[in-house]
């Protein structure tokens, strides 16, 4: 386990002599962008030097001397943003969605002639959610049974959630690697209602609950003879993504090339 | 709220002068029957006078002077047992399954010429489970959203469980009575996997989890703007049914006629 | 169970012909007042006719024709506000804190010559929290063991919370009424750390958790042989108090005199 | 992550050709010993060759050709048992309690002239409990707040439980290593009841709940701005320790020398 205190979610007071890292935010007026600006401003070792959104010049971030750019924009503009930053030798921390293997390969190509520049693209900056997935994956091979419950506000359109589906696939993969058979289940179709046993994601049942009052919650239940292990993550607020974003901002200059996900930054 | 201490699940010490109630057990060697015999033996105000099972004479319970009989037998013999007890002026507490409206009507007919005899038939003697259903029903009309999760060992063949399905119907009925529309749900079929949103029981989603290590558990989640109320019952052991059985044994002599369910005994 | 759909937390569409109820809000610029104004505006059967705060004339609410006033002000001004409203024949729904028996008696005295005016004073307008207390109280006598856990943000200064302490007293009272002995507990002081078993509130252990990320949560755990019943309320947002406030606003004209708490409005 | 399928808790079908491992059980008539005998009998790759308890000859296990001995006896006899096994070149898996640093050093000394013999001593063979501790330790440095709740049957004499106290110390150590300050807590003594905030174990609050119906349960709550991560282990039955015991039996021949705890066997 690393003892690097910069990983701690609290705002570690910077020692006076350490130079500040200059940060520019793209999509600064969006819901996530506003949170990022607030979090950067509150961090003593970071300085917010540029806030850019639709209608602003991208050159602002370069002119302002940003060393790192945080991008929470849109799939249709994020590739241009990343290319611009790489050209300008600015590291990128990207929370915008919509990346596929082809886009990732394109970015990797742009980075080849720039061995010092780092780009991190993460589908989820929530450290808690990432830990949940990691722990579920590690625990999976010790338990014959596993099921996932995800609970969200009723305005969500997809079921199961992307995070729950991803967790299920990681867990299923760990079970296959351990040679585990499917979880035991005596349910008889004739005695059951359709849907009762949830959605099947690579053999792992996933149940989606939609309830007024909830925000975003995920629970992994693992069972063995005489015991269960339950891992649960509750997210109440976008603020929960900021420690992960700041962690990436602080580490990206030391991680040249393309990084996908914040897992490798957590030192697990 | 009643203050009748006989409702308390602890074995209230009987005052020395109070005569003991004589109890016979039918199906005494079955899993539930064994538990009943143990529980009656441990109760200071009850006396176990007859244990009857396949191959024993039913007359034993009458000969032994049983005032109350507890029946955990089988659907194919329980009607004969009840008729015999009514004829002998013995009260019956019945946990055997398989009663429909017609059978209940038959029993009510048998009871007509016997105004002092009581028969109680209950699908569930678990006080916790009955309270859960009751509270869910009472709370339902205050919450736009409600979903039910039931969790059982993987040997269970039906999904959802009978108790969860019954809870869902009670909740649905309370919602209709309050004029509540269906719970909000923006799930789009195109973005979802089949089964993710659970089984539909009169408009209430019910999710069934099957996990090695679990026994029998039920959770009702109610949601309104900014808050949720969660009611959960965990049953680990058949012992959990005994307080309900003893409660019925103690009260049945004061409740002539046919009673279905233990709800009315709880004084709620 | 009542079928009065006006109890439902959704905004029941008012039938066109029904006259609107005119509502004034005192403390309209406070955190709760702002929520009340928003909720009244969103309700089709209510009309917000006056918003009053420090520096505004109290007469505004009378001049605007308010039939009901909602008061979320301060202990040092609320008695004057209530007196004024009673004099003007305006019903009062009061969420301001700090009432003791003497103040309640004073208000009852003011109401005597005004048999048509209603004043409702509630320490908690959260319907979920009130239901939790009610259910815990009803269930208490059936379980030998009961403990309470309350979980809040770390900025809270009191422990246990007022709601948890009140729940504990209600539960303890129900247990005494049922003749239940103290919950079983073999803990030996020599083998224990101080505080491990929580605070003692009339014999009921109460545990207070303070965690960054949490808002306000309460859990009542009830245990009997082989089973547990858990009742949990999670409150994420002040919005959760609004259904209770609106319920009171709608019912207060039919409830002359002094009412304490919203329990009696819930039709339980 | 290892893909060694022998770690899986299910009884992996042994390939027909693989020779069976011969196992002797010391303390075979004790509660844990009986479970171990049952589990060894059920495992296709293990053979139970000797069951020894008070009054039986220890030589039986050697005569029967045991390659591995499992010891669930008593602190006053376990050291003799271990010495005997080492002398006889039999590997030991020990669940008996009461080891301190001096005893461990003595055993290490006995093992020096026997480089092929392995002894594993574990305070807890529950894989779920060990995983919980491990995950809590890994997650600790990412969360400003952490508290622990442990829940047990009311017959338990110590509070907090040994496992919860150990978890708290591991978490506290991980927080110190990360330079985390104490968790935020605005509780004022004047507004609080003694014990409400739990026991203090190296700065981590631990709360102990004792409830009829429960068995052994532990929950670690971690909180950061806008999110919480909850890790919970529920143990219902001694059977839950058997996968850990069998895992040790299968691996001990490949792990000469002294091993404390099953953590290193889990391949985490």
From TrEMBL, chains A, B, C, D:
The keyword NADP applies. GO terms for biological process: diaminopimelate biosynthetic process; lysine biosynthetic process via diaminopimelate. It is an enzyme of class 1 (oxidoreductase). It catalyses: (S)-2,3,4,5-tetrahydrodipicolinate + NAD(+) + H2O = (2S,4S)-4-hydroxy-2,3,4,5-tetrahydrodipicolinate + NADH + H(+); (S)-2,3,4,5-tetrahydrodipicolinate + NADP(+) + H2O = (2S,4S)-4-hydroxy-2,3,4,5-tetrahydrodipicolinate + NADPH + H(+). The active site is at residues 152, 156. Its main location: cytoplasm. Keywords: Amino-acid biosynthesis, Cytoplasm, Diaminopimelate biosynthesis, Lysine biosynthesis, NAD, NADP, Oxidoreductase. This is 4-hydroxy-tetrahydrodipicolinate reductase. It comes from Goekera deserti. The lineage of its organism: Bacteria, Bacillati, Actinomycetota, Actinomycetes, Geodermatophilales.
